[in-house]
Amino acid sequence: MAMDAERRQAELIEQFSAQAAALSSAPQLAALVLEATSHPALFAFSELFAHPALSKLAGTQYESSLEVLRLFAYGTLKDYKSKSGSLPALLPDQVRKLKQLSVLTLAESTKLLPYDQLMQELDVSNVRELEDFLINECMYSGIVRGKLDQLRRCFEVQFAAGRDLTADQLNNMIDTLSGWLETSDSLLHQIQDKIKWADTMSEVNKKHQKEFEDRVEEAKKSIKADIDLRGHDDFLSEPGGIMDFEEDRIRPKRRRQPMA
Question: pTM, whole model, 2 decimals?
Answer without folding.
Answer: 0.70
